[in-house]
Amino acid sequence: MNKYDDNAQKQDLITEKLKALYTSVQEEEIPDRFLKMLDQLDEAEKAMSAGNQDNHKDG
Amino acid sequence: MDKDFKKELLSHLGSLRAFAVSLCGNRDRADDLVQETVVKAWAKHDSFAMGTNMKAWLFTILRNEFYGQMRKSGREVSDPDDYFTNNMSQHPEQFGKLDLVDFKKALAQLPDDQREAIVLVGASGFSYEEAADMCDCAVGTIKSRVNRARNALQEILDVSGEGDYGPDAISSAASLL
Q1: B1-79 has which fold?
Q2: If I label B23, which of A52, B65, B150, B164 is the partner at 20 to 30 A Cα–Cα?
Q3: Which residue has the higher pLDDT, B84 or B8?
Q4: Average pLDDT by consecutive 10-residue portion of chain A (59 residues)?
Q5: Which has the closest alpha carbon to B85: A18, A31, A28, A25?
Q6: Is the domain B92-177 a CATH 1.10.3720.10 member?
Q7: DSSP 3-state assignment of B143?
Q8: Which tens digits make up the pLDDT trace of B126-169?
Q9: Chain-centre distance for alpha carbon B43
């Protein structure tokens, strides 16, 4: 194997490992705290826009 | 809230977490960063045009938040002791995972700008141009950071042992799966 092939193979392996690490986190189940937080933000916004509509009917 | 915005935001949470962990190297801090990012994204969602690249937009908010916190606290950027997950090192009998433990240690040794560049381009799937936009630098700068990161990783892994790095190791790892 020449030096170029050797290096290319090592670089492929590095990319492969980087992706494996990254994917291991990416594919974890999303913790509940984030889902709850999004729901809370959603509700807070709905409450706020309901209030705004009362005050500024022309939006 | 626009339902589509929320739905798309949710779909990017996994990669946001992976990016946060690779930036700060600490799982708890990474999730705090993601939380801050979601709150900020929500607050300024009016400035986001649906149909444009939400993933890049979110990643940019996260990295700005991260470097902002760094500047404020003066803390070291990464905490390699907790890089990705400590659980990995608790199963040394699993060759594949042991192999990744060495790799994550090597990754943690990189300068922050190089680690960020190789993660964005090599793992998150952004183009050099997108990464340059997000990091607010020239495309050539990103390319050079990625190259330096690759060379540094190769060097660190070469020194740490040819045996668990070469093609023989791959075939023996494969036979264990």
Answers
A1: Rna Polymerase Sigma Factor; Chain: A (1.10.1740)
A2: B164
A3: B8
A4: 78 92 93 91 84 56
A5: A25
A6: no
A7: helix
A8: 999 999 999 999 999 999 999 999 999 999 988 765 444 444 44
A9: 24
Domain boundaries, chain A: 3-55
* pTM, two decimal places: 0.79
**A10/B154 touch (CB, cutoff 8 Å), yes or no:** yes
Q: Which residue has the tokens 């979110």?
A: B58
CA-based nearest residue in chain A for residue B122: A15
3-class secondary-structure state, position B123: coil
Alpha-carbon span B12 to B43, nearest angstrom: 17
Helices (H) and strands (E) in chain B, counts: 8, 0
**Residues of A at the B interface (Cβ-Cβ below 8 Å)?**
7, 9-11, 13-15, 17-28, 30-31, 33-35, 37-38, 41-42, 45-46
CA gap B9, B33 in Å, rounded: 15
Dig out the tokens for A11 from the structure: 């670089």
| pLDDT band per the 50, 70, 90 thresholds, residue B75 | low
CB-CB: which of B6, B158, B165 is closest to A38?
A: B6
Domain ranges for chain B: 1-79, 92-177
